[in-house]
Amino acid sequence: MGIQGMELCAMAVVVLLFIAVLKQFGILEPMSMEDSSDSELELSTVRHQPEGLDQLQAQTKFTKKELQSLYRGFKNECPTGLVDEDTFKLIYSQFFPQGDATTYAHFLFNAFDADGNGAIRFEDFVVGLSILLRGTVHEKLKWAFNLYDINKDGYITKEEMLAIMKSIYDMMGRHTYPILREDAPLEHVERFFQKMDRNKDGVVTIDEFLETCQKVGGIRS
After folding, report:
1. Which stretches make up the EF-hand domain (predicted)?
2. Sign, CA torsion 149/82/66/29
């Protein structure tokens, strides 16, 4: 699989699996565009209220009514207003009973946990969802870089990329077709760095990542 295919595959895994999580939570329901004074009252009386709707609307590509609909689903499934990592891992494991989704769910959880406090707030959730569903290619690639940059130091190392690739292979399990070789994750990482690491310093910067993905894939933001 070439670098373009690998990146598209990785992004597809992120988006499709996260949407599956949303459906499992009962959050991703049809978004009502009808006016509802009940929704306004509900949002104003919730104890663990998120940031103001106007602020969230400015930070995302959702309308006010869509945010209200999303918040109702989030609050119904997460009354505390927070999703912890154990819950996240449990849901992913249900979708991949033949594999081990624990490590991948951990990495994905950290990508959504913007402030690193060990829980996903509604604000974290809706900002990430906006990028994955309605963001530009540039925004989605920046989000993917953040996923691969495990220690959040602004660089992707071979060790970090290998950890992500192994977690995806572990999650898919040994029942894939064609059967994947043991050294397949390492081969993908080597291809990744051959294309991405322009100055051959052993790490990939955000600029190298964005430029290569868009050039090799023929993508425009």
Report:
1. 100-135, 136-171, 184-219
2. positive
> Can you read off the two tokens belonging to residue 212?
């290569």
Bridge partner list, 155: 205
Query: Minimal CA–CA distance to 131: which of 117, 120, 141?
Result: 141
- The whole-angstrom separation of Cα 115 and Cα 194 is 32
Q: Which residues, 6 or more positions from 218, have their beta carbon under 8 angstroms from its beta carbon? A: none
Q: What is the DSSP string of 170-203?
A: HHH-S--SSPPPTTHHHHHHHHHHHHH-TT-SSE
Given a contact cutoff of 8 angstroms between Cβ atoms, the answer to whether 196 and 216 are in contact is no
Nearest alpha carbon to residue 132 among 6, 16, 28: 16
Q: How far apart are CA 149 and CA 87, in angstroms?
A: 23
The CA–CA distances, whole Å, from 166 to 81, 173, 182, 194 equal 32, 11, 10, 19
Measured at the alpha carbon of residue 161, what is the angle toward residues 213 and 167, in degrees to the nearest 5? 120
Q: Report pLDDT for 38.
A: 47
pLDDT in tens, 144-190: 899 999 999 999 999 999 999 888 888 877 655 555 677 888 888 99
Name the token pair of 88: 């996240």
pLDDT at 95: 76
